[in-house]
Amino acid sequence: MSQTDAQFEFSEALSVEERLAAEALIVDVDGFEGPLDLLLTLSRTQKVDLRTVSILQLAHQYLAFVEKAKELRIELAADYLVMAAWLAFLKSRLLLPPDPADEGPSGEDLAAHLAFQLERLSAMRDAGAKLMARDQKNRDFFVRGVPETMERVRNVTYTASLLDLMQGYARIRTKDEFRPFVLDRKSILSMEQALERMRGLISFAGDWTDLSSYLPEGWELDPKKRRSATAATFAASLELAKAGKIELRQGETFAPIQIRSRTDR
Amino acid sequence: MSQDITEPVENAQNTADAPRESLFEAPPLAEQERMVEAVLFGSADPISLAELAGRMPHGCDPKAAVEQLQRRYEGRGVRVVRVGEAWAIRTAPDLGFLMQKETVETRKLSRAAIETLAIIAYHQPCTRAEIEEIRGVSVSRGTIDQLIEMEWIRFGRRRMTPGRPVTYTVTPVFLDHFGLETARDLPGLKELRAAGLLENRPMPVMGDISEEDADEQDDLFEDES
Amino acid sequence: MSQDITEPVENAQNTADAPRESLFEAPPLAEQERMVEAVLFGSADPISLAELAGRMPHGCDPKAAVEQLQRRYEGRGVRVVRVGEAWAIRTAPDLGFLMQKETVETRKLSRAAIETLAIIAYHQPCTRAEIEEIRGVSVSRGTIDQLIEMEWIRFGRRRMTPGRPVTYTVTPVFLDHFGLETARDLPGLKELRAAGLLENRPMPVMGDISEEDADEQDDLFEDES
After folding, report:
1. Which of these, A46, A42, A2, A44, lies nearest to A24 by C-alpha position?
2. Which residues contact A134 (CB under 8 A, 6 or more apart)?
3. What pLDDT is attached to residue C193?
């Protein structure tokens, strides 16, 4: 508030400047943090140490201020008026000789308390300013920019270790190596397939024919396929023999196996 | 350890302790200092000695380690500072000019909020009525709320007076923000107390504030000093 | 400075420079080291030498300061490390266990994300099609988004092939997180295998693999190493 330093006294003869200052003070009444704050501001105009401020003069100043506000038809909050009433009481106490019959505190006691209140408010205000003038966190001094702690924040943090990363990569790159052993179905003839095939052909085999001639076309060329097809066809022939559909014979060990359909039934 | 045959019980205790101690042998102090260094560097918030002890291997002495670390960082670009019962590493304030990028725009506190904060800090634990008496004006709900939201003040114990009003005290976050080791390090606290400005002096007219209250108020500071 | 009357122009230049240099005299190296220490400590991201130079007073030598700082932190609880082209302060790896308490609330990255990340790290810059080819499955938008959000990968230059596909590369944040100076520091497959880091476990596909099959597989694997 710019007017706080202004000479501010409600003497009989106010200079234009003083009058302006006084009015500025009143217009700015909203800027005051209550009657005590206003009193503190007024006390500063006495230009003395708060400890030696004249409470009587201060009461006078305050009452004049309220008077002025009324003149200017400025509505003052209730607590300003309560303070005014109290100061008027204090003023009378200070001016009149003490009544020995009165039990209550003396005018001096009351004045001393008001002085204490003003000094305390002023002290707290200074303390607040000193506090704010201190080095402050994130303004003058700083905390760790990257705390290691994964903070107890609400959002989920995903993480992975270097090991995860490397293993993940290794997993992909060695996927083929890891593939379990599976039969290559392309070069496999299952017994069911052989059986199916032979069932269709068997009715034509009236005479003994080599089992090898029942292999699927082309399979005898590839050794892998031939092995699989031979085994499957042989197994299928055993199955058919068991069912009584065909007869089997073999001249000697490792000789070709021959089959023919059993038509005698 | 002197062998004293006249005290067999105590002696037995000693030998019972011995193997346990050797089993969990604490790392050398230099290593403990490294650990404290890593933990304090890793945290933006102050870390209490208890938490340090909890993180460090059994048998460590975090207090000795942190004090040694503090001496090591004297005069460096970062400092080891005490915040209440906890410790933190902070950049040296004289280097703040280098850190504009990190500066967090803090909400400007209103004059009312600053005064209220100062009153709570210097008078804690402090009731709302006391704040209002000192400021001579009622305290708006918003002001207290704002300070609580900033975690600079919190509720203290209730005052054992009629109505059992809540009290407010400042928090470790407050101490941390203003670089204070304890509430006793508030600027000018001693002078204010010596001048009697922190006393709860009752208004002569009312005269109904008990002496006990006044005593209780200074408890916090006196307990600590 | 020798006065040479035969070269008046150059001489004029010298004298013009001189006052400027003295005006902005660089602080002593010890002070520069303090500055670097504070900045590295307070910064959320690793800081490049250029950025350090920009923050420090004119005439400073951030490289010398950061190297001196690095030496000072040798063997300490934290270290000054290079992250790509930038510098940062990090916990000494052997003390990582002190931080573990805090990492509980983090979630493991999904396998798909890890694999995608790994492929990008090993093959950067790398297009989505390439990732899919290597993984053998399509990469979901979400996986890429998550990694970008975590700031572990970012868009690289577009590939100059039909369709101009975007490429992905890993970021300094990634390098920082995994303690790598460059992506080239990632160990190769051979090194992984030598270190026993490969999972020697067959992937369950059909679920009916006989013992012999499993053995055979291990053989196959060992043959290659």
Report:
1. A2
2. B178, B179, B180, B187
3. 64
Best residue in B137, B185, B198 for a mutation probing chain A (most A CBs within 10 Å): B137
Which CATH number characterizes residue A240's domain?
1.10.10.580
Q: How far apart are CA A186 and CA C58, in angstroms?
A: 76
How far does Cα B83 stand from its chain's mean position?
5
Architecture of domain B18-97: Orthogonal Bundle (1.10)
Residue A44 and residue A114 in one domain: yes
Query: How far, in Å, CA of C33 to CA of C63, rounded?
Result: 10
Query: What are φ and ψ of residue C221, in 5° steps?
Result: -65, -45
pTM metric for this prediction: 0.55
Tokens 């209780």 map to which residue? B216
Are C38 and B101 in contact, with CB atoms under 8 Å apart? no
SS (H, E, C) A88-154: HHHHHHHHCCCCCCCCCCCHHHHHHHHHHHHHHHHHHHHHHHHHHHCCCECCCECCCCCCCCCCCCC
Interface predicted TM-score of the whole assembly (ipTM), two decimals = 0.57
CB atoms within 10 A of CB C161: 9
Compare all CA atoms of chain A with the CA of C111 and give the residue at the minimum distance. Answer: A168
Whether residue C217 contacts residue C202, with contact meaning beta carbons closer than 8 Å, is answered with yes
Residue B94 CA: distances (Å) to CA of A130, B155, C30: 18, 34, 15
Contact A130 B136 (CB under 8 A): no
Query: Nearest-CA residue of chain C relative to B94?
Result: C35
Containing structural domain, residue A207: 191-261
Q: pLDDT, tens digit, for every residue of A198-208?
A: 887 877 777 88
- Using CB atoms, which chains have 3+ pairs under 8 A with A? B, C
Which of B118, B137, B176 has the CB atom closest to A137's CB atom?
A: B176
Q: Which residue has the tokens 């993940």?
A: A168
Q: Give the CATH number of domain C108-222.
A: 1.10.10.10
| Chain C residue nearest residue B99, CA to CA | C39
Q: So where are chain C's domains?
A: 18-97, 108-222
What is chain C's mean pLDDT, rounded? 75
Q: How long is chain A?
A: 265
Residue A113: other Cβ atoms inside 10 A:
19
pLDDT band of A21, cuts 50, 70, 90: low
- Residue B78 pairs in a beta bridge with B91
Q: Do the domain assignments include residue A150? A: no
Amino acid at C119: I
- Report yes or no: B205 and A105 within 8 Å, Cβ to Cβ: yes
The answer to whether residues A122 and A39 belong to one domain is: yes
